[in-house]
């Protein structure tokens, strides 16, 4: 028996807090009724806004309405009322089988009428007449103006779902309004047995707001006893309020006043638990279900909570457990100054505003879609796959049969791996699926903090982090810049001393907020940078240095503990079930974004819209994430595994983030997709038949050259995926699109998308080398193959043998750089890629020369090329280099540092750390049997790069390229 069905044994009905056309048309809603005992549906403007804006469910219906000349409001009503009617018809058998107890579908009156009694009454009557279904409920908010409307409408026999309840006091008023309405009917001699109502008590939002207050007080408190009292109250407010509200429910509906009505057929007004998705990732994801199970209650769950409870919920009669403890919790909250009745008024006003804003957004969305339909609704993801199309379509059919998307949303780890050790990792790495919904609840918290630091006089922000902790902020910084009045943010993800010094000199340390960003709390580069800058700030601000630092990390990491002990300005604890490369829409991406003044709510809204296009009720061929993931996976298996990214100029740095996501997720077990980011575009003839081009095109950008090149590539037979964005804010949806698509592609390749098994190898080598440096005062040397001027070429013994076999003169004092390089490049085969790994400062001059280098190698060898700066790329493509297929040629470039900087508390400097990282990665690649060489340029980096470029030219000439 389904755990959801089992709840009925305890007197609780399960409703679904979601509705959309696809859910009904696909048969998914019918399945939930039949298999999970679903007994009702609730809707609200936010649900409809996401469904209509984010999916194609309504496009056909909208076309007909537009052709009929309907207005925006008429289109809205036609779409929504039809959904409610169809859903009500599906639930009619439930309604009849339960004698009108269940089987209801709820529709909200316009949130614009929340403070208008007469307007609410008139609108509710109108909707009731239009729907013509006895098993619908009209939702009326529990505002002071809503209470008399509830009484009047119940008196007229209209079923009412009272919404936006946050306090026991207001709940009592709602229950009394319901009873008063029944009394009116009884006085007129009208029947009472067919009138139904629920009182919707909203839960998670209570805890979100109360916990925010408690956390603020915890930050300000130094008293251990006071801190313990505050910590004990975290996460208690909502469930305690709900348990005591239920006690009042029992008292009210066993009172003589109601029993008199009950004898005439009146039903109790059941309490409905709403807002039951857990917003705190450190709590159990079904806590608002498991702790509130009891008779005469309803729990309306969003799809993710429904799936979670079906999977691992624990049904029991819990609602009347620990009632006295609940009472004490509310008393304790009052003692620390948190009066829930006051908080409830704030929450209700915010709830009305949120629904009203969603309603406005919905109307804007319909208006926009109406205009696009008039001009021809464009596709936003377009495939030109040639003969690969049939293979992708077959894959989609297979995934449909496997119920892949339904299983994905249910967090089924077996989609990737069967082994228990893999499944354990995977199950703790799927939080990104519901992250946008969770983060919406924390936007205000983040933006309030951004305002706080602005008002405190901070002018700059410097983010110290690597990989998934730094790439999304870098993309957002490059795409949106800094809004006037907000912090000028820079990202430091390098141990290169010149880079560190340059950024240090660009800011006023006293007015700089340092963001220490690391999921594990142990990343060596991040912590080294932190110690360096903490010492610098302490030199300026003394004992007040910690007020310039915040941390973003997981709970209970060494950094989290250290930050609390040292007194950081703020510590943001990220959900633990999200891997670094899947964390763009978490605190790791959104806190830096808010500090720059980026509209993070809109960013999340765009992601949520795409989520609605990718849920299980959407046909597989209309699911953009499933389609893209299938294309990546299937073409990758066919040898088109070089995913070449082409982006419009304003958003081109988005490729940094996609590169890491694809490389670390897929590059393992001798497999992998190679993301090609930033490679200059060429003529079709320079590309091999291992390419899949993805063109992410931003409307109104300077796209003419890219459009023309992509058109030529398509004509030449290369497969192309075009993704069309309306504005830069659509990157919110792209973060989610690529997360899901990459996870799906990984499943098609048969790899675990959520681990990085080979990254540790380079870290271990680096650690060992640094220990050797501590002991000997120097790092071991590379095997030198040849030196020419200031440039040395190095390789391992295997490479020396290979080059000799290929006829290249291998002796430190003989031969030439070009001859040995020609021997190395001669190993390139069709399907290979060439990775340039530069442990250099990223300057305009250096980057231009490195781009010229990779382009010449690409054109000469017809292989894909990548360019990464060390040690940054170790947290991006490093996993692919060591764990992917052995189809890479690796050119490492190092140089002598012109400046150096100490790392406080360590016997080595940043220059030594960088050298150890380069050598550690070289040794890892060598041990894996990769084709790798290293060029050391000496002190004159730019001159050395020019010499190297000339050597490449000569080497290719020797090969007839």
Q: What labels would you give this structure?
A:
Rossmann fold, single chain, transaldolase activity, 4 domains, 24 strands, 51% helix, alpha/beta, 961 residues, TIM Barrel, six-stranded mixed β-sheet, gluconeogenesis
Characterization of this structure:
The chain has 961 residues and is an alpha/beta fold. The chain folds into four domains: 3-204 and 249-319 and 344-354, TIM Barrel (Alpha-Beta Barrel); 381-421 and 608-749, 3-Layer(aba) Sandwich (Rossmann fold), CATH 3.40.50.10490; 442-598, 3-Layer(aba) Sandwich (Rossmann fold); 759-958, Rossmann fold, CATH 3.40.50.10490. Helices cover 51% and strands 13% of the residues. It has 39 helices and 24 strands. The strands form four sheets. The chain has an eight-stranded parallel β-sheet. The N and C termini lie far apart (68 Å). The model has no long low-confidence stretch (mean pLDDT 94).
């Amino acid at each position: 028996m389904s755990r959801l069905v089992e709840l009925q044994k305890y007197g609780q009905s399960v409703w679904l807090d979601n509705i959309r056309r696809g859910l009904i048309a696909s048969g998914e809603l019918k399945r939930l009724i039949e298999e999970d005992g679903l007994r009702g549906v609730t809707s609200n403007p936010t649900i409809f806004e996401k469904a209509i804006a984010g999916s194609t469910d309504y496009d056909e219906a909208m076309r007909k309405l537009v052709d009929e000349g309907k207005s925006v409001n008429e289109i809205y009503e036609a779409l929504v009322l039809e959904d409610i009617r169809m859903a009500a018809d599906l639930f009619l058998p439930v309604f009849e089988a339960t004698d009108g107890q269940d089987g209801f579908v709820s529709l909200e009156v316009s949130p614009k009428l929340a403070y208008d009694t007469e307007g609410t009454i008139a609108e509710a009557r109108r909707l009731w007449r239009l729907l013509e279904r006895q098993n619908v409920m009209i939702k009326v908010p529990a505002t002071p103006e809503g209470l008399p409307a509830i009484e009047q409408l119940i008196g007229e026999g209209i079923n009412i779902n009272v919404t936006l309840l946050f306090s026991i006091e207001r709940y009592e008023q709602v229950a009394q309004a319901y009873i008063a309405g029944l009394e009116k009917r009884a006085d007129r001699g009208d029947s009472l047995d067919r009138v139904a109502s629920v009182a919707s008590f909203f839960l998670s939002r209570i805890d979100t707001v109360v916990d925010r207050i408690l956390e603020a007080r915890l930050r300000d408190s130094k008293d251990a006893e006071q801190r313990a009292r505050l910590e004990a109250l975290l996460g208690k407010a909502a469930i305690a309020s709900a348990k005591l509200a239920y006690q009042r429910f029992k008292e009210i509906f066993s009172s003589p006043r109601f029993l008199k009505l009950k004898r005439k057929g009146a039903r109790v007004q059941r309490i409905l638990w709403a807002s039951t998705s857990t917003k705190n990732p450190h709590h159990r994801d079904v806590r608002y279900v498991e702790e509130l199970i009891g008779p005469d209650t309803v729990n309306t769950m969003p799809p993710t909570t429904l799936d979670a409870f079906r999977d691992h919920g624990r049904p029991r009669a819990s609602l009347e457990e620990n009632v006295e403890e609940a009472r004490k919790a509310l008393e304790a909250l009052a003692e620390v100054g948190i009066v829930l009745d006051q908080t409830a008024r704030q929450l209700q006003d915010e709830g009305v505003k949120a629904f009203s804003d969603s309603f406005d957004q919905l109307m804007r969305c319909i208006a926009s879609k109406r205009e696009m339909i008039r001009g021809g609704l464009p596709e936003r993801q377009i495939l030109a796959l040639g003969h690969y199309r049939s293979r992708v379509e077959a894959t989609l059919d297979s995934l449909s049969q496997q119920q892949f998307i339904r299983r994905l949303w249910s967090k089924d780890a077996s989609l990737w791996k069967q082994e228990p050790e893999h499944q354990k990792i995977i199950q703790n790495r799927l939080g990104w699926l519901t992250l946008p919904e969770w983060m919406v609840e924390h936007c205000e918290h983040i933006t309030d903090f951004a305002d706080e630091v602005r008002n405190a006089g901070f002018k700059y922000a410097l983010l110290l982090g690597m990989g998934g902790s730094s790439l999304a902020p870098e993309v957002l910084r490059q795409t949106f810049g800094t809004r006037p009045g907000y912090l000028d943010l820079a990202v430091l993800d390098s141990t290169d001393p010149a880079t560190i010094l340059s950024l240090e000199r660009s800011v006023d340390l006293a007015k700089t907020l340092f963001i220490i960003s690391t999921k594990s709390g142990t990343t060596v580069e991040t912590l080294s940078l932190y110690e360096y800058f903490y010492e610098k700030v302490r030199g300026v601000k003394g004992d007040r240095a910690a007020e310039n630092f915040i941390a973003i990390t997981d709970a209970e990491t060494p950094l989290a503990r250290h930050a609390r002990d040292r007194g950081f300005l703020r510590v943001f604890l990220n959900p633990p079930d999200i891997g670094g490369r899947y964390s763009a829409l978490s605190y790791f991406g959104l806190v830096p974004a808010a500090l720059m003044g980026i509209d993070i709510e809109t960013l999340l809204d765009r992601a949520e819209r795409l989520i609605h296009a990718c849920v299980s009720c959407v046909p597989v061929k209309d699911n953009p994430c499933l389609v893209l993931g299938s294309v990546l996976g299937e073409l990758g298996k066919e040898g088109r595994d070089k995913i070449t990214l082409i982006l419009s100029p304003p958003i081109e740095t988005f490729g940094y983030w996609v590169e890491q996501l694809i490389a670390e997720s897929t590059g393992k077990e001798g497999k992998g997709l190679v993301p090609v980011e930033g490679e200059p575009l060429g003529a079709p003839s320079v590309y091999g038949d291992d390419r899949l081009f993805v063109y992410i095109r931003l409307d109104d950008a300077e796209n003419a050259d890219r459009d023309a090149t992509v058109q030529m590539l398509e004509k030449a037979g290369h497969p192309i995926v075009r993704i069309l964005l309306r504005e830069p804010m659509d990157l919110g949806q792209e973060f989610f699109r690529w997360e899901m698509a990459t996870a799906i592609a990984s499943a098609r390749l048969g790899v675990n998308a959520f681990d990085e098994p080979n990254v540790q190898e380079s870290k271990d080598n680096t650690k060992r080398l640094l220990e050797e440096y501590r002991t000997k005062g120097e790092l071991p040397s590379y095997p030198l193959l040849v030196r020419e001027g200031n440039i040395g070429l190095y390789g391992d013994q295997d490479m020396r043998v290979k080059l000799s076999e290929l006829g290249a003169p291998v002796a430190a004092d003989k031969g030439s750089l070009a001859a040995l390089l020609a021997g190395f490049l001669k190993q390139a085969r069709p399907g290979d890629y060439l990775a340039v790994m530069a442990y250099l400062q990223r300057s305009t001059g250096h980057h231009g020369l490195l781009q010229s280098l990779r382009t010449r190698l690409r054109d000469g060898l017809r292989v894909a090329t990548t360019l990464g700066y060390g040690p940054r790329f170790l947290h991006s493509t490093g996993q692919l280099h060591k764990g992917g297929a052995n189809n890479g040629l690796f050119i490492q470039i190092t140089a002598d540092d012109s400046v150096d900087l100490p790392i406080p508390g360590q016997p080595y400097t940043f220059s030594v750390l960088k050298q150890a990282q380069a050598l550690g990665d070289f040794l890892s690649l060598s041990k894996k049997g990769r084709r790798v060489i290293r060029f050391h340029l000496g002190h004159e980096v730019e001159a050395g790069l020019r010499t190297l470029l000339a050597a490449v030219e000569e080497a290719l000439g020797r090969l007839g390229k």
